[in-house]
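Work Package 3 (structural annotation) set out to generate three-dimensional models for the target panel prioritized at the project kickoff. During this period the team completed the workflow that converts sequence records into discrete structure tokens, so that structures can be stored uniformly alongside our sequence database. As a representative example, we reproduce one entry of 222 residues exactly as it appears in the project archive.
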Amino acid sequence: MKNKICTVILGVAVAVMILTFSIGLPIYFRPFYYWQIEPLDIPFYTDKTVEEIRAGYDEVLDYLTLPGGEFGAGSFAFSEEGAAHFADCKVLFNLNFFAFLISSAAVILLVILARRGRVALWRPFGLDIPFFSGAGVLGAFLLIGAVVAADFDTAFAVFHAIFFPGKDNWLFDPATDEIIGAMPEEFFMNCAILIVSSIIIISLTLMVISIVRKHKTKKTVE
């Protein structure tokens, strides 16, 4: 008998894993930022060397991704309000990280149980559940991507209103929070492009694999 509860859990876990992995790419793959320092003319706009910019960015990311620690931004000046915003970001980054770990563990566990015959997973229309996870996440983020591409400024403001309700400390003053000059709007737009691209690639890959498996299973039965 097919276990629909475990099947739904697997579907949700795969969707969360796709999303959190993609969000984590521009966070944990720091060369993605390094490669943009000179193309975006960040040394010119911040009056800092490439080395100073990298050092400041690294200190900010260390604070955001590592346990404990106090906020710092290298040679860049920052205000209490700016540091408070990064403290809020740290909570979201940690949430994304642990959601990825938990969803990955759930996927691995359920796949192992299914292969050992301990759990019988439901396959609607003969397709693996990751097909539907990928299709769901892909559809949602293609829609979000279209909205962001149409008006990035508004989408950026709405994003902060949702995840930082009632706060305006994300509206940095470059005079007191110099680090924002090292993270221009183009950088965040490129992060969004990377996230959506990752979601598209992973989702399509899972969907194609599921379709291929369906056809192979059909041929074997025939």
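The chain has one domain: 4-221.
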